[in-house]
Amino acid sequence: MANAIGKRGGPMVTRKVWIVACGLLAAMSARADLFNDNFNSETAALGTVTGGAPLTQWNVFKGSIDVVSSGSFGIQCNGGVGNCVDMNGSTVQLGGISTKNTFSLASGLTYTLTWFMSGNQRVPGQIDTVDITFDGITKELALPWDSPMQQYSIVDTPAAASSSGISVESISGFNFQVGVILDDVRLVQSSVPEPSSVALMLTAAALVALRIRRSR
Ligand SMILES: [Ca+2]
Question: Rounded to an integer, what distance in angstroms lies between the CA atom of residue 143 and that of residue 101?
Fold first, then answer.
């Protein structure tokens, strides 16, 4: 289609039309941050348990977790700075945390949950299993102790409006004092244009190009 427009309207007109079309696409693909936590404002503390002093944006719903500063206990947080969470706390229990807030989800929009996670970094041979759940979608990771800090994601396009929090839950390991390391949790909403909308817009752009050519 680009070639066809180019032949009819000439390079300058084609460029103008495509700039407008791309601008419309960008406007339709608006993004919004719904949640962001790098844990750096938390106070480092060991053994934060269910019902204990909660984190700013999370409750501990199972066992305990530790908030650790990068460099402490041989743990490196994402980027080697700030704080992060050891998902098995110093009370020797598998930990689980869930966001205090729930998020309203609209149908037809796309929600992308991302987080950084590494293995436990301290117990050679240990594999820790952890479930991350958002809007009924669970991603289960089984991370060897030396699995590097990297980004994971869940992409959700709800078929109907709903609401959901985010939960991170340790499932298994053999040293329950040492779990996976969690950092930089983020939830982003983006609106993705329907294919029919894109086709309509490109058709409109082609018609505009034709009109411009004829008016010359
Ligand atoms: Ca951090």
Answer: 28
How many structural domains comprise the chain? 2
CA–CA dist 183, 215 (Å, integer): 58
Does residue 106 share a domain with residue 139?
yes
How many angstroms separate the alpha carbon of residue 203 from the centre of ligand 1? Answer: 47
pLDDT of residue 177: 86
Distance from the alpha carbon of residue 35 to the mean position of ligand 1, in angstroms: 14
Span 195-207, pLDDT tens digits? 666 677 677 777 7
Domain hosting 198: range is: 2-29+194-215
Distance 50 CA to ligand 1 centre (A): 22
Asked if residue 98 and residue 56 are part of one domain, the reply reads yes
Q: Kindly report the pTM of this predicted structure.
A: 0.77
CB 140 within 8 A of CB 134: no
- Each residue's pLDDT tens digit, 129-171: 999 999 999 999 999 999 999 999 999 999 999 999 999 999 9
Q: What is the CA radius of gyration of the chain?
A: 24
Q: How many CB atoms lie within 10 A of CB 113?
A: 24
**What's the gap in Å between 15 CA and the centre of ligand 1?**
44
**Centroid of ligand 1 to alpha carbon of 42 (angstroms):** 9
Give me ligand 1 centre to Cα 137, in Å: 25
